[in-house]
Amino acid sequence: MSILTLSLLSPDEIEIIDHGSLKLIEDTGFRTAHPETLKLFKKVGAVVHENTGSVRIPSALTRELLSRAPDTAEETGLNGRVLKAGGKNRYYMSLILDPFVVDWDEGIRAPRLEDVRRNTMVGESLDRVNSMMRMEYPVSDISEPDSCYKTMETFLCNTTKHTAVYPVSEKNCRDWMDVAAVIADSAGLPVKETPLLSIAMAVTSPLQIHPPNIEIMKQAMERCYPIIPTVCPMAGTTSPYSVAGTFIQANVESLLPVLVAQLYQPGHPVFYGIGPSVTDMKTGRDLYYRTEKMLFKIMANQMGEYYHLPTSGEAGGTLTHRADPQNGAESILYLLASHGTRQNIIGGLGSLGNANGMSTEQIIMQCGLVDMVEYLARGVDLSEEKLALDSIRSVGPGGNFLEDKLTLSLLRDKTEFFDSSYFDLSGGYNGIGIHEKAHQIAADLVSRYNQGVPGKTREAIGNFFYDKYRDKSTAAL
């Protein structure tokens, strides 16, 4: 059986990047103003200047700390399904909320509470979606601070799947930790041993970790919650203006949270993941989903595998907000880069508009692209049966294969040739394109949605947030 794989870096080039990265950690280091972390690094032999927050780690110590990190990270949800991120395992995660949404009827607009409810229902209903992420962004129809809490409540009352949390502050992270404890307790699950959440923390380019983000990591380490580095250097502004230069800096920055976590708690799971972008030097805009994204993703997954770390990153979206050829081309290229290089968590299904927006239809269209990528990556079965030499001999020149034994045996098989309910595979005869299909599928999923979160847990979640609402009438929305 042949298998489609993608690679960009040769073994020698991987060694060059690794050697350069460790030299940067040793000679240039990183900076943090977190006193406890500085003392811990100094204690184990790093060169620390507490007045500037500079930390330079000898290469041998970096290797030792990396060796403590596990090669898998487990995640789960109320549905009880355990996601073992690592090795060849692959899971998909959808978006729930972003700064803007592309509405089927209204076009681009600010998000509303109903978008959170609808997108959660869709993500919960799609088999392709294994987990979900709700970005910390207010909806336009509820004022802050209630907006943040109400979207959390709405999301958590409608999903049984694993949640990836992207906290914007220590307090925000603590809210997630506290409500996860309420959920676990209501479901009879051990709070500290059940990884209902994974926690993202930011590295600030170039080469800085601010104290609040270390505190967020420490909260994750209170339990068994995997840590997801958010590493987003921008070529030309916060990283070198070259693909290779930005990548090697991103590689260093993705290793830093691993080193910090293993310093505090050896064996705690930390993902390898990067999300570099390119600065448009004419306008100053940050362009996240440029073509270079495919190169960054392939290299990142090769390096994550080299360091024996579970890998996480975006599925890949598009610079445009439209359902047009550019959207399809960019989305499939980045998904193929993720899948073909064995990225373990492929997140952000639904993303568009330069990673600032999303749509319900985009989640579903990208599920169709996942079907395509999964099929392509599976490769070709070159077994004796599928090579079909006997069939060719039997039919001979000028014949046809309509009644051939192989045709009849595979006629209703949906694995030999590509099949997906999300695509128009009729050759255009049914008149329904992928965008229209996605809209119909979303409406159907929402109309048939059956809330899977137990009533006892929904009540516990509601009680938790009721105490936090400034306007108590928000609880009834």
Tell me, rounded to a whole number, the average pLDDT: 96
Structural class per helix/strand content? alpha/beta
Tell me the number of helical segments per DSSP (H or I, 4 or more residues long): 16
**In the CATH hierarchy, what is the architecture of the largest domain at level 2?**
Alpha-Beta Barrel
Question: What is the terminal-to-terminal distance?
Answer: 54 Å
* Unreliable sequence segments: none
Q: What share of residues is helical?
A: 40-55%
Strand fraction equals: 5-15%
At the third CATH level, what is the topology name of the largest domain? TIM Barrel
Report on the biggest sheet. 7 strands, parallel
Q: Quick one: CATH superfamily of the largest domain?
A: Trimethylamine methyltransferase-like
In the CATH hierarchy, what is the class of the largest domain? Alpha Beta
What is the rounded Rg?
24 Å
**How many beta-strand runs?**
19
Shape: globular
Q: Which strand order does the major sheet show?
A: 12-11-10-9-6-17-16
Number of self-contained structural domains: 2
What would your notes on this structure say?
- Strands 12-11-10-9-6-17-16 form a seven-stranded parallel β-sheet. It has a four-stranded mixed β-sheet with strand order 8-7-19-18.
- The radius of gyration is 24 Å and the shape is globular.
- It contains 16 helices and 19 strands.
- The protein has two domains: 15-67, no CATH class; 71-378, Trimethylamine methyltransferase-like (TIM Barrel).
- With 477 residues, it is of the alpha/beta class.
Keywords summarizing the entry:
477 residues, alpha/beta, TIM Barrel, 2 domains, seven-stranded parallel beta sheet, four-stranded mixed beta sheet, 16 helices
